[in-house]
Design a protein that fits this description.
The chain has a single domain, classed as Ribonuclease Z/Hydroxyacylglutathione hydrolase-like (Metallo-beta-lactamase, Chain A), CATH 3.60.15. Helix content is 27%, strand content 18%. The protein contains eleven helices and 16 strands. The chain has a seven-stranded mixed beta sheet with strand order 8-7-6-5-4-3-16. Helix 10 packs across helix 11. The protein is globular and about 50 Å long. It starts with a helix and ends in an 18-residue tail after the last strand. The relative contact order is 0.16.
C-alpha cells in the first residue's frame, strides 16, 4: 500500500463518516426553515436550505467508494495525463495576466481558485495553490495539474474570499505564504475568522448569508450554498459555507463555491440581485451520483444553476486539477458544453478556461449596467 493510499483511506473514511451522518439525520435536522438568505444554526451546527437534496446512497455504495479511494484507484486514475492546452505554464499565465492591464479580467488558477480584477482591484477567491488537498504537506490527494500562477506571481491582493473550510478551498499552506496580511480585507463564512487570524491576517470579517460589505470599492454579499463543512471527523458543519455575489459598478459576478443544485434558492437569488454577468459554477466531483448529489452539482445542474441566476456567461470550475471522485477527469467540460447548448447558451458564453488563462470581462458585462452599491454590514 502506498503512502497516498494510506492517507487516502483516512481521508475517505472521514468523508464517508460525513456522508453517513448526513444520510442518517432526519430532514428536520438537516433543513432550515427558510429557502432564501436566512441562516439556521441549531445545536452548534449550520444547516442547508430547506428542500436541499439528500443522500440516496446505501452503506454498500459508500463503502465501495471508500475502497476505490483507498485501494482500488489506479495511478492513472489518480494522476491522469494532462491534455495539451489544459494548463498554461506560469510564464504564459503571467504574460496573459499582464496583457490585461488594469482592465476587468478573470484568471482561473485551477480547481475553484480565481483571481478577479474588478474596477482596478484584485480579488483572490479560494486559493488552493498547494500540491495537496490534505492536512499534511507530504501525503494526501495530489494535484495533477499545477496552479496557474504561483503565490509569488500574484499581484497585490485587495480582497481575499473563502467559501468554506475544505482543504481544496481553504489551503493554509497557500494562505500562509500570501503577503499583505495586514492590509488585505479577508471575508469568510461564520466560524472561520479565528483560523484566518491564526494564519496572520488582521482584517478578517465573518459573514452570514445575506450579509454584504464594501471592500476595495466592490460590494460582496454572502449567499447560500448547498454543501457542508469539516476539516476533520468531529467538526461537521460547525462553520458556515457560502457562495458570493461580487459587484463592481459595471460587473455582477456570482461565485458558487461548492454547492449542489437546489430547485428554488438560486432563482430567489436572481430575484434578489437581478441577473448576473458571470456565474462561476462547479462542474466536477459528482460521481458516484448517489453519494455526491447532496453536495456537488453535476455539469448539467451547474448550467441550470447559471441559468437560474440569469447568467450571461457560465464559467466552469471545480474540475481538472485534483481527483476527488470517480467521473473521468476530463468528462465534465464536454457535458457542461452540451448542457449549455441545450439550454440556449452560445458556445462563447460557456467558458472552459485553461488553468492560468486570463480573459477580459469587458465584453461580458451588460452594456447598460451601472450598479448602485449599498451594503448590509455583518
Amino acid at each position: 500500500m502506498t503512502p497516498w493510499q494510506r492517507t487516502a483511506g483516512w481521508i475517505s473514511a472521514a468523508c464517508i463518516t460525513v456522508f453517513a451522518q448526513s444520510a442518517c439525520s432526519s430532514p428536520a435536522e438537516r433543513a432550515t426553515t427558510d429557502a432564501g438568505l436566512a441562516v439556521q444554526h441549531v445545536d452548534g451546527q449550520f444547516l442547508n436550505p430547506v428542500d436541499s437534496p439528500a443522500s440516496t446512497s446505501s452503506w454498500g455504495e459508500m463503502m465501495s467508494f471508500w475502497w476505490w479511494a483507498s485501494f482500488g484507484a489506479s495511478k492513472e486514475e489518480l494522476s491522469p495525463p494532462v491534455p495539451p492546452g489544459h494548463a498554461l505554464t506560469p510564464e504564459q499565465a503571467q504574460a496573459q495576466l499582464t496583457a490585461q492591464g488594469a482592465h476587468d479580467s478573470l484568471t482561473w488558477l485551477g480547481h475553484a481558485a480565481f483571481l478577479m480584477r474588478l474596477d482596478g482591484k484584485n480579488i483572490l477567491v479560494d486559493p488552493f495553490l498547494g500540491d495537496r488537498a490534505s492536512p499534511v504537506s507530504v501525503l494526501g490527494p495530489r494535484r495533477y495539474a499545477g496552479p496557474g500562477l504561483t503565490v509569488d506571481q500574484l499581484p497585490p491582493i485587495d480582497t481575499l474570499l473563502i467559501s468554506h473550510n475544505h482543504y481544496d478551498h481553504l489551503d493554509l499552506r497557500t494562505l500562509g505564504r500570501l503577503p499583505g496580511k495586514d492590509t488585505m480585507q479577508v471575508i469568510v463564512p461564520r466560524g472561520l475568522g479565528a483560523l484566518l487570524r491564526e494564519t496572520g491576517f488582521t482584517r478578517v470579517t465573518e459573514v452570514s448569508w445575506g450579509d454584504s460589505l464594501a471592500s476595495a470599492g466592490v460590494r460582496i454579499t454572502s449567499v447560500p450554498a448547498v454543501h457542508f463543512s469539516s476539516r476533520g471527523l468531529f467538526d461537521r458543519d460547525e462553520t458556515l459555507w457560502s457562495g458570493y455575489v461580487i459587484e463592481s459598478p459595471h460587473q455582477r459576478v456570482y461565485f458558487a463555491g461548492d454547492t449542489a443544485y437546489h430547485p428554488t434558492v438560486f432563482k430567489r437569488l436572481r430575484e434578489t440581485f437581478g441577473p448576473v454577468d458571470l456565474a462561476l459554477v462547479p462542474i466536477g466531483a459528482y460521481a458516484p451520483r448517489t453519494l455526491m448529489a447532496e453536495v456537488h452539482a453535476d455539469p448539467e445542474e451547474a448550467v441550470a444553476l447559471a441559468r437560474d441566476m440569469g447568467a450571461r456567461t457560465a464559467v466552469a470550475m471545480h474540475w481538472g486539477t485534483i481527483v476527488l471522485s470517480q467521473e473521468p477527469p476530463f468528462e465534465p467540460p464536454r457535458r457542461f458544453r452540451a448542457a449549455g447548448r441545450a439550454l440556449g447558451y452560445a458556445d462563447e458564453a460557456l467558458w472552459v478556461m485553461a488553468i492560468g488563462e486570463s480573459r477580459s470581462l469587458r465584453a461580458s458585462a451588460a452594456p447598460d449596467r451601472q450598479l448602485q452599491l449599498t451594503t448590509t454590514q455583518p
